[in-house]
Design goal:
Order of helices and strands: HHH
Strand content: under 5%
Protein name: Transposase IS30-like HTH domain-containing protein
Subcellular location: Nucleus
Helix content: 40-55%
Number of helices: 3
Number of strands: 0
Distance between the termini: 45 Å
InterPro entries: Homeodomain-like_sf
Largest sheet: none
Oligomer: single chain
Main location: nucleus
GO cellular component, one term: nucleus
Shape: elongated
Structural class: mainly alpha
């Protein structure tokens, strides 16, 4: 589709990008403008901002993800 920005599926935000999003949103930028600057979808920006406003942090949650089936020693 011409004129459409390609989506970056399964991309993860770096710490720098998270800080950039929070800084721009704090300065009063709209979600649409922030998404254009960091080249991510508006949904990613909204989720990052919601986590910041609700939890006060932008870091990854400890313990998220699937559990290991084997121990590191077994590997």
């Amino acid at each position: 589709m011409p004129g459409k920005r390609g989506r970056r599926y399964f991309s993860q935000l770096s710490e720098f990008e998270r800080g950039l999003i929070i800084g721009m949103k704090t300065a009063g930028w709209s979600t649409h403008h922030v998404a254009g600057q960091v080249d991510h979808s508006e949904c990613v920006v909204r989720n990052c901002w919601e986590q910041w406003t609700q939890e006060g942090t932008h870091a990854w949650k400890i313990g998220s993800g699937t559990t290991r089936k084997t121990t590191r020693r077994e590997d």
